[in-house]
Amino acid sequence: MTYLRYRDDLEHPRPDEEQIIDKIIAVLRDNNERAYRKYKRGLRDAHAKSHGILRGELIVPAGLPPELAQGLFATPATYPVIARLSSTSGVIRSDQLRGVRGLGIKVLGVHGRRALPDDDATTQDLIMVTHREFLFADAHAYLTKGMPTAWMLARLPDPVLQTGSTLLAALDRHVLRRIGRGVPPNLGVFIAPNTHILGETFYTSAPVRYGDYVAKLLYVPVSPEVVALQGQPVDEESGVNVHQDSVIDFFASHSATYELRAQLCTDTATMPIEDATVPWPEDESPHRTVATIRFDIQDPYTPERRAYGDDVLSFNSWRGLDAHRPLGSINRLKQRVYEASSNFRHDVNNAPRLEPRDATELPR
After folding, report:
1. How far apart are alpha carbons 75 and 60 in whole angstroms?
2. Do 88 and 177 form a contact (C-beta atoms < 8 A)?
3. Torsions phi, psi of 39, nearest 5?
4. What distance in Å separates the CA atoms of residue 81 and residue 55, rounded to the nearest whole number?
5. pLDDT (0 to 100) of residue 172
6. What b/e readout covers 231-262, taking b as 16+ CB neighbours within 10 angstroms?
7. What tens digit of pLDDT does each residue of 210-247 get?
8. Which residues, listed in sequence order, are joined to residue 124 by a DSSP beta bridge?
9. H helices within the chain, ranges in order?
């Protein structure tokens, strides 16, 4: 199989992309300030509610083929990791609500040329969500379609968000008809069944550089205990923090293993860089395992750990190696949006902004 070689000219930003991102940052700043007035503390404008902060390790195996042995995965090694499970809403809501879940992975002790010239950290951040493709093609689509949808979702009452058919009707009635289209397939993530978060598969959604190539990544459960949780419905009687409680209960007596898999790009005609809504065909290039991630028995949500994961840590996919530089409009948007949100949150909370260099910095 022939894989696309990375080149600096693979990306093609719109001429007005920076102005579009400026507008998005301004709107999100208003959201940050509104949340601060409500909760009396700064929140992330996405992934505000965490469900567990995990300590683990990422193991790169020996014998990867040359096209997969790239960047972080170039040589066999074991790295400490800190991971944060979350829901992607920018407000604190019940875990009973349907929606998208998030996973931030911070790999520690990663040395090499950085994606951003002023970054002196030794971490590699991976930002993943439970939808394989991003919901909007680029920054322009996010401004014109994504932000109205997010605005409406943040204001719908919990009973509507909890019921799939009602939520679908509300989306169509209040937002999507106003922007000139019916409910597109990619918004099905908002009405997908609410299932156990440890059984979910997570995706980078948008492409990243993969050393000499280009890829998308996924994270999937492989040990029997978490495989058994795939598709397991959330108990509707388990309360507003059911994801947090289920993560705590699981890791009280179980370990868990996941695989990180890469799908290499073969052709930008069928696997575009700038349109993050287009599925990359598995029959052209399947996801292949490049590492395993293991979490041992632990308490993932002590008060000290929660405070560290929610208030001190920040995750940004641009914090990492140049060999894994994020690509495409959605990732260029995230670079500036995540940084602006993190700056606001740390400033108003008077919280230190630290990049860990050792896993022992995560409280037990």
Report:
1. 7
2. no
3. -100, -10
4. 6
5. 54
6. eeebeeeeeebbbbbbbbebbeeeebbbbbbb
7. 999 999 999 999 999 999 999 999 998 889 999 999 99
8. 107
9. 17-39, 139-141, 147-155, 158-162, 164-171, 224-227, 242-251, 303-307, 329-348
Longest CA span, the chain: 54
Lowest mean pLDDT among 89-93, 216-220, 236-240, 303-307: 89-93
Rounded Cα distance between 209 and 100, Å, is 25
pTM strictly above 0.85? yes
Residues 6 or more apart whose Cβ sits within 8 Å of residue 224: none
Write the CB contacts of 343 (distance below 8 Å, at least 6 apart in sequence): none
CA–CA distances in Å: residue 227 to residues 81, 201, 247, 251, 290: 21, 10, 14, 15, 19
pLDDT per position as a tens digit, 15-53 = 999 999 999 999 888 888 888 888 888 988 889 999 999
Give me the DSSP letters along 53-103. EEEEEEEEPTT--TTTS-GGGSS-EEEEEEEEEEES-SS---TTS---EEE
Specify the residue for token string 């995540």: 338
